[in-house]
Specification:
Elements (H helix, E strand, L loop, with lengths): L1 E2 L5 E2 L2 H17 L5 H25 L4 H24 L6 H28 L1
Antiparallel strand pairs: 1-2
Length: 122
């Protein structure tokens, strides 16, 4: 996180997507180990990591068309992460349910950010 001239925090999107993927991994690590949760957790880990990886790739794109496609993929992966978060079973454990809500909110915010980048880029 950096600050601009008016001392407002500016979040680096690469850092934010990395933190999202790390928070997902911590969330999945605390899930009870059942076959369904392991499989859902794997999908969640893949999609959450893809958000940031595709953002880095989009920033290194050689054309505007490639950039736009990369950002579309970021938005898609954030949306997929939100889906897996909604699907995974936390056994209604209070701390995990709270963490899930926070992560769903972050996935939604990332979707909105990438949607805004897309609108401004086209």
């Amino acid at each position: 996180m950096t600050k601009d001239r008016n001392s407002k925090p500016l979040y680096d999107l690469e850092d934010r997507t990395l933190m999202f993927a790390k928070m997902i991994r911590a969330f999945v690590k605390k899930l009870p180990k059942t076959l369904g949760k392991i499989e859902d957790g794997k999908q969640l880990i893949r999609s959450s990591g893809s958000v940031g990886a595709n953002y880095i790739e989009a920033n290194e794109s050689l054309s505007k068309k490639d950039f736009i496609m990369g950002i579309k993929i970021c938005r898609k992966e954030a949306k997929e992460s939100r889906y897996w978060l909604r699907l995974v079973d936390t056994n209604n454990e209070a701390e995990q349910e709270n963490n899930r809500k926070i992560l769903i909110n972050e996935a939604t915010e990332l979707m909105n950010i990438f949607g805004t980048i897309l609108r401004k880029s086209q």
